[in-house]
Design brief:
single chain; mainly beta; three-stranded antiparallel β-sheet; 24% strand; globular; EC 2.3.2.27; metal-binding; zinc ion binding; zinc-finger
Length: 45
């Protein structure tokens, strides 16, 4: 039986106004190095 992949965490950078994959473990934007990011849930609009 195949295992399903874990859902990918999605983050939004409020400075870049874009969805990003943050740098870990600091959780900063890879574009602007800002920490003003937010985890986006499936229910977020």
């Amino acid at each position: 039986m195949a295992e399903s992949a874990a859902p990918r965490q999605r983050f939004f950078c409020h400075c870049c106004r874009a969805e990003i994959d943050p740098k870990l473990p600091e959780y900063v934007c890879p574009r602007c190095e800002s920490g003003f990011i937010e985890e986006v849930s499936e229910n977020s609009k």
